[in-house]
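Fold this sequence, please.
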Amino acid sequence: MARVIIDLPDKFQFTTNVEVHISNINYGGHLGNDGTLSLVHEARLRFLNKYGYTETQIEGIGLVVTDAALIYKTQVFHGDVITIEVAANDFNKYGCDFFFRLTNSETGIETARAKTGIVFYDYKTSKICEIPENLKF
């Protein structure tokens, strides 16, 4: 079976720290898949807020996540503080990819990588839209 590879961009536009909550932990006692997606979702929201956006208000339209990929490097536990770097990259006519590098804030060791694909979406018409002309990131 082919392994997922996430090639990170050279430059990240945003960095934030997120504490791992008990709701992010799975039955194995470490950060679970759904917990990782919750952390990158939080980081994406903070990234959008930096530009004055929300997920439903980006120059008059919103966004929808179309795919997600995760790669784990080390375990993460309840109470760990994770530094998440965020980059919007690989733009096309209708969307882009968000890349995330997760690092343990205390040790500096990379713990995971993630990528989420998004498309821009008009929630009023329920249709995919082209990238807004005045997009700031």
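Helices lie at 33-50. The two ends are 36 Å apart (CA to CA).
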